[in-house]
Specification:
The protein is α+β, with helices and mostly antiparallel strands and 551 residues long. It has eight helices and 28 strands. The protein is 19% helix and 31% strand. GO terms for molecular function: hydrolase activity, hydrolyzing O-glycosyl compounds.
Length: 551
């Protein structure tokens, strides 16, 4: 029933000749939006061409919304070359006729699902089986782009709906498809094994995008219009901290419409209840030629206006996201408060080489009618290597810290793989035992339980001043509150470091307050549970590593 679900193809039937010819004005509306977006973005514009479905006449069902059986390929076997040529031709027109540089082409969208059935008004879609079919269209699209001398345009895939499916599909690509692939794209509607996908991309040497997600969720406590806004902020932070993508892309900025006349006999549901969850961040009122903004829109801007292309993302605790601008030496932190009470947060910046004295503060809270919308608050000061900030109830706040320098540190690893490892029992006496913490694999882990512990005997005392650790993927929050100790004799222990946040998936590094010299290293968790937690502390940890800072 969506009025925006009908996307015209560029190949149309010439009634006189009976052949399909290109109509470059067939989808003029979408091209107009593209032109305006590129104009607004300027040099920061990044354009990706993606396809939901091949033209209807190339499909088995003769329908661009999907197949009669949505579980099998819907692109005709003899049309793979034709579809690749179509994608390359359209890309060439956009780049060389319209003068808009295209970065990438994605030939598939959520391909290995059963979402896309024939004769549906929902959205165009096309099933491609994992393995041979997906590999074939990646290879042919790459080769077709080269036929048009579009060597600057990469092929990306698979834009799968879940991170687990994306892992499985990548592993089934042919060697040639992997060679031709320029980037991995994934959606996070179902973020199962999300950290594993991020690590896979790093291991395979691929850039990674979270290329689509949205939803009608809410977060916060009695948050009203901020509920959808806080849900979006939570989704952005969780995805980026778990997946480490180089881009996070919202499905549609405008996904809801008001139009009395409708479109081809269809009408959208009209104005949404902005105190509930909804897709998109704004509503297009076609009857009054207006765009109705929401607090979800302003919450999105708390990220996008201040975390800009080229900045370096820095993992930090739950409900916070940080990014560093090396040119301006500014650190940007976006923080959520999903509780109904104002609260204070201490941001420890002692890991930075230098910290300035000024903190700018921008906030969104309340309602669209009388709330805050990117409100510029009074500047704060730092206390040297950090700052304390008040987070308003049910709010999204952006802090910009000046004069920040990360430094240039080179690390020398202190070997721990030969250490003798002991520990408490794994959960249910399973195989995820304590020795996993030194196997060099961040996807294996010690599945310790409440009051669990793990100890390393390095055989002799070693010097180190940086601690490395990796949480169990998918359960990163279980390391929040975890404690590291050192000992010379295995009896008298000194606390080295306490994890005061939910670390990112993969390896995390902490510069310690001094150089330590110990034979034994211990990790454990406190008794009981943290305030507001839903479970007891659990001794889950994937890796422990030690380093020395090179002179």
């Amino acid at each position: 029933t969506r009025t925006d679900s009908d996307v015209p193809g560029w190949l149309v039937l010439d009634e006189e000749t009976g052949e399909y010819v290109y109509d470059y004005d067939a989808d003029a509306g979408q091209l107009n939006v593209l032109k305006r977006a590129v104009e607004a973005a300027g040099d920061e514009a990044i354009v990706e061409v993606f396809s939901n479905s091949p033209p209807y006449f190339m499909t088995v069902s003769g329908c661009s919304s999907g197949g009669f059986d949505p579980n099998i390929d819907n692109l005709k076997e003899d049309c793979f070359d034709d579809f690749a040529e179509y994608l390359a031709h359209v890309t060439n027109y956009i780049q060389n006729e319209l003068g808009i540089e295209v970065t990438s082409v994605s030939p598939m969208n959520e391909p290995n699902t059963n979402f896309w059935g024939a004769n549906s008004y929902k959205q165009e879609g096309c099933h491609f089986d994992a393995g041979e079919s997906q590999s074939k269209i990646i290879e042919l699209t790459y080769e077709a782009l080269r036929q048009y001398d579009l060597d600057n345009v990469m092929v990306v895939a698979s834009d799968e709906t879940s991170t687990e499916l994306q892992i499985e599909e990548y592993n089934l690509y042919s060697d040639k498809a992997k060679e031709y692939l320029g980037r991995i794209n994934t959606h996070t509607y179902n973020p199962t094994r999300i950290g594993e996908l991020g690590q896979l991309a790093k291991d395979e040497g691929f850039n990674l995008w979270m290329s689509e997600v949205d939803g009608n969720g809410v977060a916060g406590t009695d948050a009203g219009e901020m509920g959808a806004a806080l849900w979006l902020g939570e989704k952005i932070i969780n995805d980026i901290n778990s997946l480490s993508p180089s881009a996070w892309v919202l499905w549609q900025v405008i996904d809801k419409h008001i139009c009395e006349e409708g479109y081809k006999g269809r009408q959208d549901s009209g104005m949404i209840d902005i105190t509930q969850g909804f897709w998109g961040t704004a509503v297009a009122d076609h009857d009054n030629v207006d765009i109705i903004l929401t607090q979800k829109y302003y919450a999105f801007g708390q990220f996008t206006r201040y975390i800009r292309p080229g900045m370096t993302l820095i993992h930090c605790g739950a409900d916070s996201l940080a990014a560093y601008n090396k040119d301006t030496k500014e650190l940007v932190i976006v923080a959520l408060n999903k509780t109904a009470e104002d609260k204070y947060v201490n941001y420890d910046l002692s890991q930075m080489a230098a910290v300035g004295g000024r903190v700018q503060t921008i906030r969104t809270s309340g309602t669209i009618e009388d709330g805050e919308h990117w409100a510029q608050l009074e500047d704060m000061g730092t206390y040297g290597d950090g700052f304390v900030a008040e987070l308003k109830a049910n709010s999204v706040t952006t802090f910009i810290v000046d004069g920040v320098e990360l430094g240039n540190i080179e690390l020398e690893e202190v070997p721990v793989s030969e250490a003798t490892v002991t520990g408490s029992m794994a959960w249910n006496n399973g195989d995820d035992t304590a020795d996993k913490v030194v196997d060099g694999d961040t996807q294996t882990f010690f599945d310790g339980t409440a009051e669990g512990w793990v100890e390393l005997d390095l055989g002799e005392s070693v010097k180190f001043d940086v601690l490395g650790f990796a949480p169990r993927t998918g359960y990163e929050g279980r390391m929040n509150g975890g404690r590291f100790y050192g000992s010379k004799n295995g009896e008298k222990w000194e606390e080295i470091y306490v994890v005061s946040y939910a670390p990112a998936s993969g390896m995390n590094y902490a510069i310690l307050d001094k150089e330590y010299n110990y034979r034994y290293i211990r990790y454990d968790v406190p008794e009981g549970r943290a305030e507001g937690a839903t479970e007891d502390y659990m001794c889950n940890i994937a890796e422990i590593a030690l380093y020395k800072i090179k002179d």
